[in-house]
Amino acid sequence: MLSLPPLPPEHIRTSFLLFTRRNRYNPVVFPPDKPELLLRSEFNSTAWTRILIHGYLDGSYSSDWLF
Q1: Is 48 helix (H, G, I), strand (E, B) or coil?
Q2: Where along the chain do its domains lie?
C-alpha cells in the first residue's frame, strides 16, 4: 500500500475561526502559525469552550450544521 505524505501547510491553508457571543457572525480568523492573534482576541479562557471539527472535505462556511 502506498502512503502519500500530507500536502504542505501552504497548500492546505488551515485556519481557525473563533466565534464568541460578541462576534457570532464575523469570526476572528487566524492561521496556526499566528497564535498571538488569539491572545489579542476576545477569547476568554475561563469560559466554557466548545471546539468543533468539521470533516476533511467540508469547509467552515459550507457546513450548515455549524450554524
Answers
A1: coil
A2: 17-44
